[in-house]
Amino acid sequence: MNTLEWGSGNWSSGCVRRTKLQCERGNNATDKNKEDGFSRLTFVKVPDFMHWSSGVENECRGLCLRNCSCLAYAYDAGIGCMFWSGTLIDVQKFNGDAGADFYVRIAYSELDKEDHKVVVIVSAIAGSFVASVCLILSWWACKRRDKRVTTYEEWVKGLSDSSETVPSDLPWYSFEVLANATNNFNVANKLGMGGFGPVYKGKLANGKEVAVKRLSAASGQGLEEFMNEVVLISKLQHRNLVRLLGCCVEKGEKMLIYEYLHNRSLDAYLFDRTQDVLDWKKRFNIIEAIGRGLLYLHRDSRLRIIHRDLKPSNILLDEDWIPKISDFGMARIFGGNQDQANTRRVVEHSLGYMAPEYAMRGRFSEKSDVFSFGVLVLEIISGERNTSFYIDDLSLGLLGFAWKLWNEDNALDLIDKRISCSSFRTEIMRCMHIGLLCVQESPVNRPSISTVLSMLSSEIVDLPAPENPGFTDRMSHSVVRSSSSSESHGVALSDKTEVAGYSMMLR
Hints:
Transferase(Phosphotransferase), domain 1, single chain, Ser/Thr_kinase_AS, 3 domains, Phosphorylase Kinase, domain 1, globular, five-stranded antiparallel β-sheet, alpha+beta, 15 helices, 19 strands
């Protein structure tokens, strides 16, 4: 952990393990037969990109321990056991109102430094017992009240005390209907696993195919984000935005029903080297279409919206490879004259796509979406995922490497071999130039999305020289690099207090 970075409020480099795990120790170690343990973090939004198993809760710990690369595990009733290896780059601690128990693996020798002390509290007044009973009764009353909220209208009324913002024509689906449509959320119907929970393919009684996003309790997406997505996306209509068909709030579940897109998400094809269906023509069309979708959000819709979560897994593709932007849970509406806003809640599961001013200061604007778009463009050109690309010898991530190649006139080396065709090189290089303009460190220097589209269509012929990108070297990439060393693993948590405590074990 870099002390200077920590002191300046930059905790992105995470913490480094100071003691090897048991499975990493040599055969001569005196305690080689001892077993590693886990540190439990409560109310946590778990990272993306997990491996998962349909095992029951009490099996998760053992499954993780049997795999030396397993750094952490969690359990969710709707998913099963979830496991993480490599680095933990997008863990977020909540204030006790959302999230799941998250178990981070620690070495056996560190177990005694965990808080296993027995604390005995002897009550001096009998009134404390009465207070406990009152709390239990209050909790029970709240649970009963929550169970009475069974309709969409009642739920919205209870949230905002006003149902005026709710689209009256948005269909309300019962849990039973969605369970039947997905064959009781069968694993065979699972389309993917996102940061907010699994997505299932479903078929309604009328034969219509749908995609059902079942929000996991472990995701941390609460009622506010859920309601935000329902209200926002139901009011948006554009060819390059996914269409919301309805929602369900019942039996403790929160689900969103979308149009079903046959070709899944962009990352499924872009980063899988065995997939070669995305030639340059398709990739260029995808870049332009994503830009048009953003232009609609920023300028052309009746609401002015900043998406804040633009990344390949949130770009869905239909049967004609037309992209549609999805996941509006973190989107925000801007006022007519508002240029930027601040938030204390950063979308940490989008680390690698966030602009510097958003990641470091919580400041977002149209230009922060433009930065994310630029990262997408460079990923589409290179076929590399920004959150896992790292060159150790140069201490560079994807943005820094692209910038280095550009300045050395070796930019052709960035192009994905699957699209490396001489007849398209001029267009690809122009797109790379545009991508670098979008990821410039200063938001003032980044073009607007309308200017980007003019550049892509060559309405603007001469492009300005790009300046230094944000996160050229360490900021986001030191967190997400996959460590090949058995001596250290990075951990990044958004809650400073949790990280400070955890760093006592990992240094």
